[in-house]
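step: validate -> pass
step: tokenize input -> pass
step: predict -> running
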Amino acid sequence: MKHGDDSVVRAITDDGAFRVITARTTETVRGAVAAQSAKGRAAKHFGELLTGAILVREAMAPNLRVQGILKGASGKGSLIADSHPDGTSRGLVNFGKTGGEIDVGKGALLQVMRTLPNGMLHQGVVEVPAPDPRAGAISAGLMAYMQDSEQVVSTIAVATALDGDTVVAAGGYIVQLLPEVERGPLMVMTERLSAFEDLEEVLRGGASPDTLLDELLFGMPFTRLSQSSLSFACQCSQLRVVSTLATLPRGDIEDLVNAGEVLDIRCDYCGKEYQVHPAQLRSLLTTI
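step: predict -> pass
step: emit ->
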């Protein structure tokens, strides 16, 4: 893995008190933001939700798909982050009638879902609390979710640094308290987190996941467990598009076949365009 590549690193303190996961998500966020043409504060919140979904997946369900959905206050816009077990992520930005802004103030809701192996969904919804002055609304919402829906005490920080509308850095970390934690180590970690520098500035300085790990656990013996790559990528394909059309009522498919026109379908996640020809639609009628 090259220096500067997006990745996530996992570690545990040698006393068994804390588990720490750190991530660099710059290229992942940059790709998703560009695909959605997001700008300004919307791009910042979107990037932070994407990083947050990655961290929650790594912490709670590394082998499952995890989605984070932020619903703006008073229905003003929504953001969707979609993180997959292979390390790829994507997302959606829906401004609705907000004119390019997502309201993450009082009344905004954060929903986190993970798809279980049997296809069922495990999900929780929390209201985004007022953030600490040093943290952002997304970080506060993620911590509330972990506490209320997962009953896991965690400190989460995510940040997206912009220059104008360009993503220059993104990343974050999660520190989880494990059952073995004692008062001494807890006090040390509490002081360490309160003294931790502004995450956005640290990321702007080029901090890697290992740098974040060393900073967070300074003076605390720990074992680095693993590292894996992250990237922006979409799960769409010609097969998925046709498979989705196959779920339409037979009458609707027949109408499309009779129209004799090539369907142009654009993926909302990545913008890739697909064409479905009448012959492909006709073949669906033999399987329904």
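step: describe -> The chain has a mean pLDDT of 89.
step: cleanup -> pass
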